[in-house]
Design a protein that fits this description.
- It is globular and about 45 Å long.
- Helix 3 packs parallel to helix 4.
- The mean pLDDT is 96.
- Helix 8 links the parallel strand 7 and strand 8.
- The protein contains 13 helices and eight strands.
- The protein has a single domain, classed as TIM Barrel (Alpha-Beta Barrel), CATH 3.20.20.70.
């Protein structure tokens, strides 16, 4: 199933300062991803600022993205919310609209226990009927899943994949082995964190949930395909070409960099949701220089 394997491209969600989604700009971002042949499009992830949008605007974004992909690739959509009933409603809405699956992070103001996370996920899966990918995003949720919890979640009907932050090269093989040992065969273990994605795929990761792929699908696809084929030399060489972009992501956050990149490239003029501020002009010039030097794979 391509939905939870290969490259999933995660675009930004262009919107006004008031949080009104620019559906035309979103279509211009999403359509080239499907045309490039990514394995799936990840809408309303963290880069898609799902947490800053109302339910109505999230649905408008979903409808626009579904129109843009035109059935060519499956759509994975963020359904995270503070309340379990709200997440269920978002997942049902995504299912009814035609999304292929939901991406569910255990978002909470109060740090959650493992039992609370398990109950949250199980309820959303059961009551929505939408296949789910569990989104481990500890920088946002202040909760990191253990292999034991992943094992429990992997046996929840409807929970079919994990999106995990990829550790550094020296730790990724052991990390992946620990997760793989905890889950049944066929359960997808994929990775985010673009600068570690090559090594995560080479270690056996099923999917790369890529932020850069939301604007640069071709070089990211080339890297993903090389890693999937076990061609470590090519995958690492392609990753090295992208290192200047990864350095910007690490220094300034991939969210801010991708918003700046979309504007610099003339794709759209998105407003970051306040209180997040855009990059300062000197950093924007750095981004522009990296984009100018970014060679096609």
């Amino acid at each position: 199933m391509t939905l939870f394997s290969g490259l999933s491209a995660f675009p930004i969600t262009p919107a006004s300062p008031e949080g009104v989604v620019d559906t035309g700009a979103l279509r211009r971002l999403v359509a080239p991803l499907a045309a490039a042949g990514v394995d799936s499009v990840g809408l309303l992830g963290s880069t898609g600022t799902y947490a800053y949008l109302t339910k109505g605007e999230r649905r408008r974004a979903l409808d626009a993205a579904l129109d843009a992909v035109g059935g060519r690739v499956p759509l994975l959509v963020g359904v995270g919310a503070l309340r379990t009933d709200a997440a269920v409603a978002l997942a049902r809405d995504a299912r009814d609209a035609g999304a292929a699956a939901g991406l569910l992070a255990p978002v909470s103001y109060t740090p959650l226990t493992e039992d609370e996370v398990f109950a949250h996920v199980a309820t959303v899966a059961r009551e929505s009927g939408l296949p789910l990918c569990f989104y481990d995003n500890p920088a946002t949720t202040h909760f990191r899943v253990t292999p034991a919890l992943v094992g429990r979640l992997a046996r929840v009907p409807g929970l079919v994949a994990l999106k995990s932050p990829a550790p550094a090269a020296g730790a990724v093989a052991a990390h992946h082995a620990g997760l793989r040992a905890a889950v049944p065969e066929g359960f997808s273990i994929g990775y985010s964190g673009d600068w570690h994605a090559a090594e995560a795929l080479l270690a056996g990761g099923t999917a790369w949930y890529g932020v850069a792929a939301g604007l640069f699908p071709q070089p990211c696809l080339a890297l993903a395909r090389a890693a999937q084929a076990g061609d470590a030399a090519t995958a690492r060489a392609l990753n090295a070409r992208l290192e200047p972009l990864w350095a910007l992501f690490r220094a300034h956050s991939s969210l801010r960099v991708m918003y700046a990149a979309a504007e610099i490239l003339g794709v759209c003029r998105p407003a970051l949701p306040l209180p997040i501020q855009p990059l300062a002009e000197p950093v924007r010039r750095e981004v522009a220089a990296v984009l100018a030097a970014l060679e096609p794979a």
